[in-house]
Write a structure and sequence with these properties.
Blueprint lengths: L5 E6 L2 E6 L10 H16 L5 E6 L4 E3 L4 H4 L4 H20 L4 E5 L2 E3 L1 H8 L2 E5 L3 E3 L16 H6 L1 H10 L3 E2 H7 L4 E3 L4 H14 L2 H16 L2 H14 L3 H11 L12
Parallel strand pairs: 2-3, 3-5, 4-6, 5-7, 6-8, 7-10
Antiparallel strand pairs: 1-2, 8-9
Helix pairs in contact: 1-3, 3-10
């Protein structure tokens, strides 16, 4: 596949996968998911690769989740396919036999944060801002937000993040354990290289076995992704979903009050 939505590079044992849609804050569409999944599979099966880095083009965003321009028109049928692509990417990150680092600058929101929590490690610049936004647009973060996030930040904090849809600065996220380290922008690339260099010094088979063991306690949640596909695709095409998506594109507050609770 020739890549239009991502940049894929392999050099010196590091595979870098970059969301390359800065004009929409690196929001992903179907093509983006397909390209990311293909590149991730290539990196995961290349024995010369010892660490994978996911990042976003530019300094404004890592990824802000699904592209509303495409998502607004999803139906239960097309939504099921879209969500399967997303689930495949997330589980590909989990199943990669090497550590996967989320290198976050700017916004890391919605599905972008679910990609982040699927990664093994997170390095954030001071500019990073994290959060879940699904209920603001008629969607729900049930592809990692409701599964992996509670194990990272705690049950009550995860419910706050999902139910209030607030945005959290990098230093607060670091305090929650939501990212591993926050560094000034000027030090970001050097710190990322220090991480990848260190990982490449270590035993590949020991890292692979360690990742498998670390994942063991939460791998059972894969089945919940299949359930999530059916639950969330069922709301696609509904009036409430369309109101949330349309309001976002029209830059107005959605009128959810008219829908029965």
């Amino acid at each position: 596949m020739s890549y239009a939505d991502i940049i894929y590079d392999k050099s010196g044992g590091v595979a870098s996968l970059t969301f390359n849609r800065p004009e929409v804050l690196n929001a992903f569409r179907t093509r983006t998911l397909l390209e990311m999944t293909e590149a991730l599979e290539d990196a995961s099966t290349d024995r010369s690769v010892g660490v994978i880095v996911l990042t976003g083009a530019g300094e404004r965003a890592f990824c802000v989740g699904g592209d509303i321009a495409e998502m607004r028109d999803l139906t239960p049928e097309t939504g099921r396919i879209f969500l399967r692509r997303f689930a495949d990417l997330l589980w590909g990150i989990r199943q990669a036999p090497v550590p996967v680092i989320a290198a976050v600058r700017g916004y890391c929101l919605g599905g972008g944060n679910e990609i982040n929590v699927a990664c093994d490690l997170t390095l954030a610049a001071e500019s990073a801002v994290f959060g879940q936004v699904g209920p603001m647009v008629g969607s729900a973060p049930i592809f990692g937000g409701s599964q992996f996030l509670p194990g990272i930040v705690g049950e009550k904090r995860a419910r706050e993040i999902i139910f209030l849809c607030q945005r959290y600065p990098a230093k607060e996220v670091e305090r929650f354990g939501w990212c591993n380290k926050v560094v000034p922008e000027a030090q970001f690339e050097a710190e990322l290289k220090a991480w990848t260099d260190r990982i490449l010094e270590l035993s590949p088979q020991a890292l692979r076995v360690s990742k498998l063991s670390l994942n063991y306690a939460s791998d059972w949640q894969y089945g919940s992704f299949n359930t999530a596909i059916e639950m969330l695709s069922a709301v696609y095409g509904s009036e409430e979903f369309h109101e949330g998506m349309t309001a976002f594109l029209e830059k107005r507050k959605p009128d959810f009050a008219r829908f029965q609770r």
